[in-house]
Amino acid sequence: MKNISFKIDGRNCTAEQGQNLIEAAKQNGIFIPTLCHFKHLNPLGSCRVCTVKNNGRTIAGCTLNVDEGMDIEVNTPELLDARKAILEMMFVEGNHFCPSCEKSGDCQMQNLGYETGIRYTRFPHLFVDRIVDARPERIVVNQNRCIKCKRCIEEVRTTDGNRVFNFTNRGNKTLVSIDYEQEAKLSDTQAEHAMHICPTGSILVKGKSFGKPFGNREFDYSNKEKNISFNEIKKHKTTHKKKRIATTSLAGCFGCHMSMLDVDLGILDLIEVVEFNKSPITDIKNFTEHCDIGLIEGGCCNTHNIEVLREFRKNCDILVSVGECAIWGGLPAIRNTVPLEECLKEAYLNSMTSEENEIIIPNHEDIPKILNKVYSNHEVVKIDYHIPGCPPNANHIWNVVKHILFEEEYSIAYPEFKYD
Amino acid sequence: MKRSRLLTRLWEFQNKFGFISDNAISEIAQKLRVSKIEIEGVISFYHFFHRQPTGKYIIYLNNSIISEHKGFELVKTAFEKETGCTFGKYCDNTLFSLFETSCIGLSDQEPAALINFHPFTNLNPEKVKSIVQKLKIGVSLETLQNNPTSKIQYIPPGNKTIFFRDYFLGNSIKKILKHSPEELLGTLFKTNLEGHGGAFFSTGLKWKYCKESNSTKKYIICNADEGEPGTFKDKSLLNNVPELVIEGMIIASYITGASKGIIYLRAEYTYLFKKIKNAIQKFKNKGYLGNEILGMKDFKFNIKIQLGAGAYVCGAETALIESLEGKRGEPRIRKYFPTEYGYFGNSTVVNNVETFAKAARIIELGTDFFSNIGTQKSKGTKLISISGDVAKPGIYEIEWGTTIKELLHLSQATAPYYLQISGPSGECINEMEFDRKICKEDLICGGSIMVFNRYRSILQIIENFMKFFNEESCGSCTPCRAGNQILYEKIKKIKKGICTSKDLEEIKEWGKIVSLTSRCGLGQTSTKTFSMAIDKFKDYFNLKVKTCTDNCSIEFDMEEAVYDYDSIIKTTQF
Ligand SMILES: Cc1cc2nc3c(=O)[nH]c(=O)nc-3n(C[C@H](O)[C@H](O)[C@H](O)COP(=O)(O)O)c2cc1C
Ligand code: SF4
Ligand code: SF4
Ligand code: SF4
């Protein structure tokens, strides 16, 4: 094959003529993120994450073969943002509760979320009720996590060459469905192969993923030694007034607060430069002074949460959503795909522990009303910063707070990103 | 059984039993030696195929915006009341089943419905009542159905009409005897013929590519899937002069060397099937189709008709090819032109109905005839389907370069305010633009103009369009499948009255991302109108949203958020 030269973002590159752009870029040291692209499969062009421009025209990079003189754009601001947006679309279209997902840490989609720096999605989460299909012999398909990349459709076949998966329906109702008959013919190895080629946690093999999850969390790059430490805060000590912090937990589990306390001795340094006002940490119930920063754990699931959040907005200069629940609803938002009536009945009337013939759903003018769904905080008030994680690491939280308070440049490093 | 027969086979089951059963699927899967899920995937892609039993009469009521404006809701309620069925639900009623469907090409006679694919137009509750009652006592659909012919309201004066002038079978085919394929291509290039299906790609070039391909088999496909809401101009050609379209295909075959032709006819136009078939027969009888056409030894061409099964996206040429191959109608990745890799990998020409008809006329009438009609870049005339708030909806054959104003005058539009050019995937224009000319140099138009007066809600129009795209997207790429759904959420938000001007900016930004990254024309154009409308109808949208500067407060709809809870407590606890 002939060697040709072409350009990526103005840089001269060389490759074999006709080579797939993703591979050719890699050889030239340029990473183009992909999800549906899979080594030996024909290009699928379904996820669109690898969107690039070829001589000014947008195209999925995985469907492009390089040729002499091509002028390719990969990392322009417009394309970087589009790529991030597509991933955000995937997050809001499905229901990705990473903390409860078997694939977390080994999920290619999650990894690209970190890679592209998604702290929160610009789009509203759609919360479509999607099924978890456990009827097949060996495999479970969790539709909440499927991004319809088509890998399984193209790649997984029985020994007779029959498809096991296929799209059904169309438009926004499109699903990846399973042929139960064919699925039953898969060998254990074939079934596990299906699980591994799925870039998300949609395909699981019964009895495999819980005992030994996918592996060693290959995308967890952080380890103890590499943890960014929390120090140098004392240099901000002044004789002026200390910075004031308020915190609260709305529809959260207090896990983020536990994490805040997890800075160990760092807390001693911290309180030399800041003081806590309204917060479960101090047990101060009402704001006594205006605060510089408010840290919010949890989203809004009832009217009281809304009131507290609005009070925080009024009393704090800067508001930060801390953790997944605050950012988009998190685990409590699992109920968002189910009508409220069903939730209440399940919780109070039909649960295992409710009395027989129970008819009372707690209600009183003093009890907050339950909202129709769990709202993210930025749907209710303006939120200035988002710290992802479930919970975010303690050092990470305080580093962010430190940098915000003392107006230092800071960008979250990949290893500090976590959705679980 | 060949895979390409799949759609036809599925139609056989659907028509015979009213649905496609598990057994039918097993049988087909076995014959094709594929897994059942593959067949299931195809069936569920097309909305005229059913997996559950339906009644003897399946009623498809058009839910396009024109239908909505002309009384869709009332007609829908009337159907439900008279039949006792619910739209979109499978029920025990053995007589009727009710479904909504996207535009059926009868926008000049809305509300309209298809009952077992027989057309019923200008519906109102009384008419619905009478139709249902008569069906119940066994009156036949043939006697009850309406004439789906669209009125040809206008042809250009002074012998300029191209499509609706006198037609004599074979007039253009006979011309090819005297010319080589190269010469004919030259004629097409001289008149600048471009596809009339919406993409306006050079027809001469497309045919030249196919001609030069060394593919052993070549195909000529006529795209009669006219699915763009508000468009019914292809229908008027197939209804009035199907022969002209066929002549165009024969010429294409002569030029390219293709020996097989397929007309992909949308199922909504099933009532034209016989007419087209008869037309094909006429050509066969005259020796214009079959072997040794016009006595030329190597000139062989046959045409068959394939019915679609309800999927707008199959109008996109590569999706259409997939559909013909017996697959889900998902557009292919943009790697090859169909002329390089088309139907089953063979070189394939796909052209619109009107393109073939026009090509035939160009060969028949010659380039000189066209040189003085139209504009520099758009030669000749164009068929436009006009619907909406006009006194004279129907087909207008206009000279390219005609202004919007003239058209509004001709069609007797009443208080026109918002115009949708080329359907939902086209663009909208406002009053300031009524002097624009319809032609390549100014405002290009694929064949439909929907006129809305100043009393119509623009948001309702956009909502209808977005719903259409959500349903008709093929679902295989993320930005189109998810992005259009997300933008639909914005419409809901505007309707709730909690949007700010920041939301409008977001709609435009997000729309841009969807169109930038989508795989095919559907996603690339689906958000265009919404964004454009925000810019072009500022006054309207400014009334719908709160203006906000940098630090605007977020609007939260507390009433809506507690509504469910309050009503649950109220109804179950006291
Ligand atoms: C979503 C979508 C729907 C389309 N629908 C039609 C259609 O109904 N009829 C048509 O002729 N072309 C349609 N097209 C355009 C075709 O892809 C193709 O460009 C056309 O058939 C080529 O013929 P032409 O060059 O004669 O216009 C559609 C394109 C897209 C992306
Ligand atoms: S780990 Fe991956 S598949 Fe699982 S919920 Fe998170 S993003 Fe989705
Ligand atoms: S199940 Fe997994 S592999 Fe299959 S389409 Fe969904 S995300 Fe892709
Ligand atoms: S843009 Fe829409 S219709 Fe086109 S391939 Fe993507 S999902 Fe399918």
Record keyword descriptors for this entry.
heterodimer, A: 420 residues, alpha/beta, Ubiquitin-like (UB roll), Alpha-Beta Plaits, Rossmann fold, 3 domains, five-stranded mixed sheet, five-stranded parallel sheet, 12 helices, 17 strands, 25% helix, B: 574 residues, Glutaredoxin, 5 domains, six-stranded mixed sheet, four-stranded mixed sheet, 13% strand, globular, binds flavin mononucleotide, binds iron/sulfur cluster
Low-confidence stretches of chain B: none
- Top-tier CATH class of the largest domain in chain A: Alpha Beta
The number of distinct β-strands of chain B equals 14
* Overall domain count of chain B: 5
Task: Characterise this structure.
Chain A: Residues 78-117 form the 4Fe-4S His(Cys)3-ligated-type domain. Chain A: Keywords: 4Fe-4S, Iron, Iron-sulfur, Metal-binding, Oxidoreductase. Chain A: This is 2Fe-2S iron-sulfur cluster-binding protein. The complex is a heterodimer of chains A (420) and B (574). With 420 residues, chain A is of the alpha/beta class. Chain A has three domains: 3-75, Ubiquitin-like (UB roll) (Roll), CATH 3.10.20.740; 95-222, Alpha-Beta Plaits (2-Layer Sandwich); 227-416, 3-Layer(aba) Sandwich (Rossmann fold), CATH 3.40.50.700. Helices cover 25% and strands 18% of the residues of chain A. Chain A is built from twelve helices and 17 strands. The mean pLDDT of chain A is 91. Chain B has 574 residues and is of the alpha/beta class. Chain B folds into five domains: 3-45, no CATH class; 57-144, Glutaredoxin (3-Layer(aba) Sandwich), CATH 3.40.30; 154-371, Rossmann fold, CATH 3.40.50.11540; 381-453, Roll (Ubiquitin-like (UB roll)), CATH 3.10.20.600; 467-544, de novo design (two linked rop proteins) (Up-down Bundle). Helix content of chain B is 43%, strand content 13%. Chain B has helices spanning 6-17, 22-32, 36-43, 65-70, 72-83, 125-136, 141-144, 171-176, 181-190, 203-212, 233-240, 242-256, 273-286, 317-324, 353-365, 367-371, 404-410, 458-472, 478-496, 501-517, 521-525, 528-536, 538-544, 558-573; strands at residues 57-62, 96-101, 113-115, 118-120, 152-154, 218-224, 260-265, 302-307, 347-352, 381-388, 394-399, 416-421, 427-429, 448-453. Chain B has a six-stranded mixed β-sheet with strand order 5-11-10-14-12-13, with helices on both faces. Chain B has a four-stranded mixed β-sheet with strand order 2-1-3-4. Chain B has a four-stranded parallel β-sheet with strand order 8-7-6-9, with helices on both faces. In chain B, α13 (273-286) links the parallel β7 and β8 (302-307). In chain B, α19 runs antiparallel to α20 (501-517) and α20 (501-517) packs antiparallel against α22 (528-536). The mean pLDDT of chain B is 95. Chains A and B meet through β4, α2, β8, α11 and β16 of A and α3, α18, α19, α20 and α24 of B. The structure holds flavin mononucleotide (FMN) and iron/sulfur cluster (3 copies). One iron/sulfur cluster binds at residues 313, 330-331, 473-477, 480-481, 518-520, 522-523 of chain B.
